[in-house]
């Protein structure tokens, strides 16, 4: 029997489907939220504190925003300075370094924000932090490009540690902001073992089903295992792994059937693709310890320092996670986003979690995402 909340979520999904049938143009512009599952609606209600109707509207807005962002990225070219959604995802804001492009942004239904630095310039500053000596990086918790503030942010437990990294990278000035934070990322590996797959005595979570040619398998976090190590339940072998620097891996599982599914409570979300979600978009994570949890995308292109070293190019979210969730799926609507890397906090008090974008993993290893 469905709970009252499940019935409400189902009704909200039905409402979206009806709207899509009335307005095909809207449906085509919103591929990420075409048919959100009831379990995703329920999780968004629980974790974002919104109604089922608000969840459906949010997913539709996020889908349109992703499409608009992709278009404007090409239109603005080297003037593009990033994009993000407001708190309830009702408005897409697009930054540009050229005020003359504001009308082009408005024409797509987005709000222009004129800034002094392009996204390419911010990325270049962050890359200098990524190339700083490991000793300097070790003192900082994480750093990322923050498009709403048009700056690069460095977080550390102590001001002096962040300042040391900034100095070592030679990126001083108002483009780089330092923040003192208690956040201390750690990888989510539970050494006591458990479902869904083992690496010796450790446990991690499957990310997404993939194939390489005719070989089935899945992607996960790099810190879960090294190339050549074997897994059980399901049985397989790590074909590639990178950590630190990156945090991704892929495991070949001959004899198993890859499915385009991400576990969401007692049901599944079907993966339709891997279009990157916009900053501010809702996102959900599935892991073997804490199950199905949701939040929003905080920043793309973040670098975090774990005790094992620095990992660059991950996405920061306010979704919680705990040990054993490592490698698990991050998905926005029906679009695969990445695999759980690490984070801070937990699902009792709240936390921050990072994921390695899935498209990079697919490209590096020549994999094909299993979609339905």
Secondary structure: elements and pairs:
Layout (H helix, E strand, L loop, with lengths): L3 H19 L1 H6 L8 H11 L3 H25 L3 E6 L6 E5 L5 H6 L3 E4 L4 H12 L3 H4 L4 E5 L4 E6 L2 H11 L6 E5 L5 E2 L9 E3 L2 E3 L3 E5 L2 E6 L9 E2 L4 E7 L5 E5 L8 E4 L2 E4 L11 E6 L3 E16 L2 E9 L11 E4 L2 E12 L3 E8 H8 L2 E2 L3
Helix pairs in contact: 1-3, 1-4, 3-4
Structure overview:
The chain has 372 residues and is an alpha+beta fold. Helix content is 27%, strand content 35%. It contains nine helices and 23 strands. A six-stranded antiparallel barrel has the order 17-18-19-22-21-20, surrounded by four helices. Helix 1 (4-22) packs across helix 3, helix 1 crosses helix 4 and helix 3 (38-48) packs across helix 4.
């Amino acid at each position: 029997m469905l709970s009252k909340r499940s019935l409400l979520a189902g009704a909200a999904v039905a409402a979206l489907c009806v709207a899509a049938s009335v307005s095909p143009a809207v449906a085509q512009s919103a591929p990420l939220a075409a048919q959100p599952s009831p379990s995703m609606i329920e999780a968004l209600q629980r974790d974002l504190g919104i109604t089922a109707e608000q969840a459906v509207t949010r997913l539709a807005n996020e889908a349109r925003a992703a499409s608009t962002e992709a278009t404007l990225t090409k239109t603005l070219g080297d003037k593009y300075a990033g994009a993000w959604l407001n708190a309830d995802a009702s408005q897409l804001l697009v930054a540009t370094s050229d005020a003359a492009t504001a009308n082009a942004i408005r024409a797509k239904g987005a709000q222009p924000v004129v800034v002094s630095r392009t996204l390419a310039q911010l990325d270049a500053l962050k890359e200098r932090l990524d190339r700083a000596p490991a000793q300097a990086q070790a003192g900082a918790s994480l750093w990322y490009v923050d498009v709403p503030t048009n700056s690069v942010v460095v977080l550390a437990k102590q001001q002096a540690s962040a300042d040391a990294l900034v100095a070592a990278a030679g990126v001083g000035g108002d483009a780089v902001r330092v923040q003192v934070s208690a956040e201390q990322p750690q990888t989510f590996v539970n050494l006591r073992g458990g479902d869904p797959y083992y690496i010796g005595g450790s446990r991690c979570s499957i990310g997404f089903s993939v194939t390489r040619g005719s070989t089935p398998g899945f992607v996960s976090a790099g810190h879960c295992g090294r190339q050549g190590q074997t897994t059980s339940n399901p049985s397989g072998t790590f074909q590639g792994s990178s950590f630190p620097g990156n945090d991704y891996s892929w495991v070949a599982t001959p004899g198993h059937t890859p499915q385009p599914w991400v576990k969401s409570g007692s049901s599944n979300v079907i993966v339709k693709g891997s279009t990157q979600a916009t900053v501010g978009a809702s996102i959900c994570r599935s892991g073997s310890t804490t199950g199905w949890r949701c939040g929003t995308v905080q920043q793309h292109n973040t670098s975090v320092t774990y005790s094992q070293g620095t990992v660059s190019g991950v996405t920061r979210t306010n979704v919680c996670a705990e040990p054993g969730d490592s490698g698990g799926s991050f998905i926005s609507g029906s679009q695969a986003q990445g695999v759980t890397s690490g984070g801070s906090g937990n699902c009792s008090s709240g936390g921050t979690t990072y994921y390695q974008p899935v498209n990079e993993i697919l490209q590096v290893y020549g994999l094909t995402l299993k979609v339905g």
